Amino acid sequence: MKCPAEIYTPAIRPYRGLPELAYPFHDHTIHVTHCGRICLHRKKINLSTVFAGQALGIKEVEEGIWLVSFMEYDLGYIDLEEKTLQPLDNPFGPKVLPM
Fold first, then answer.
1. Contacts for 84 with CB less than 8 Å, ≥ 6 apart
2. Do 85 and 45 meet the contact criterion of CB atoms below 8 Å apart?
3. Domain ranges of the chain
4. To 5 degrees, how large is the angle CA 27–CA 35–CA 79?
5. How much of the chain is in helix, strand and coil states, percent to nearest 5?
6. Rounded to whole angstroms, how far apart are CA atoms 75 and 55?
7. 63 contacts: CB under 8 Å, gap ≥ 6
């Protein structure tokens, strides 16, 4: 029945952040602005401030349709005509393997 501050000890290893992300199988690596937006072919597409400052991989899968990935997770597709991200089903959810 102690308060968390009474038993807290700082971590021994300092947090150094994510390593530099590379996307060798994608067409481009693009950085998200501090306001959560990417610029692609002079069009601004809002993603999320969660990805601010992070590198994303983008790959053109059809004419004007781009797949957006973060690390090994596919986030969704960007349609340049609509200038929106169409998200996939929760890419960070649990992965169930088929039997």
1. 45, 46, 78
2. yes
3. 28-87
4. 40
5. 5, 35, 55
6. 13
7. none
pLDDT block averages, 10 residues each, the chain of length 99: 93 88 92 93 90 93 92 90 84 67
Q: What is the DSSP letter of 48?
A: -
Closest CA to 23 of 68, 84, 89: 68
Provide the sign of the torsion angle of the four alpha carbons 34, 38, 44, 47, taken in this order: negative
The model scores a pTM over 0.85: no
Alpha-carbon span 71 to 55, nearest angstrom: 9
